[in-house]
Predict the 3D structure of the following.
Amino acid sequence: MNTRARKEFILNELSVKGRVFVLDLSEQMNVSIETARRDIKALSDENLLKRIHGGAVKTTSAFEASFKERLSTNLNKKKAIGLKAKELLHPGLSLFIDCGSTTLAFASTLNDIENLTVITNSPRIAKSVWEANNSTKIYMLGGEYRGETFQNIGGRVIRQIEEFNTDIAIIGAGGISLTDGISASSIEEAEIAKAMINNSESNIVLADKSKLNNKSLCKIAGLDKIDNIIIDNISESQVNEFKSRNINVINIKI
C-alpha cells in the first residue's frame, strides 16, 4: 500500500469510526508503527485530522472543508461534463445519481427534460434537480446522514437501491484505472455506487481528468460494467487506450 492509499485508508477509518490508533493502523496496513505515525503527522499537517496520544481523531470541519473545496473546484469543467451527459438523456428516463461534486453539477442541467425520475442518496442533488425542473419525480434514499459530505449512507440505502430498476446510473469516481476500474475513497460511497450500477440498465461515469490513472482505496466496478465515461481534456493516446479495451469515452475539450 503506497502513501496515498494509506492516507485514504486512514481518512476512511476516521470517517467511519471517528478515532484511530497507530498500533491498529500499523497492523491493518501492514506497515511499521513509525510509518503509520508519519502518515498521521502528514495528514495532521494538512489539517485533515487531529493528532492525539497514540492516534488521531476526526476533525469534522476538515472533512467538510475538503468536500466543500471539491464543490468549488473546476466548476466550468464539471458543468461542461454534466451538459455532455445530459445529451445522452431523453424524456421519461429513470436515473440513479450518486453523491459527488461532478454529479451535483450534472443535476443542475436537467431543466428541460420532461418526465424524469431521479433516485439519489444526496439531499443536495435532490434539491438541485428540483430547482432545475420541478416536474421531475424524485426519490430520496434514506439512511445515516453524513453531514460532512451531504449524503445518506449505510445498509438501509443499499437495500432501498435494490428495490429499483433504473434506465441509467450517473456515477462519480475518485479514480479511474484501465486495469482496476473505477474507485472511491470511502467504503460506504463505493458500496452505494456499486449497488446503483448493479441495478441499472446503463451506467455513465462522470469525472474530470485528474481522476484518470488514479486508484482510490475502494473499488466500485470494473470498466466492463461502464457504458460511457465522460471526461475532459485527455490525450488522443489515452482515448485510444480506452477504445482498445472497447470502452466508450466522451472526451470534452475545454
Remarks:
- The chain has a mean pLDDT of 90.
- The radius of gyration is 18 Å.
- The domain at 3-58 is CATH 1.10.10.10 (Arc Repressor Mutant, subunit A).
- The chain has two domains: 3-58, 68-252.
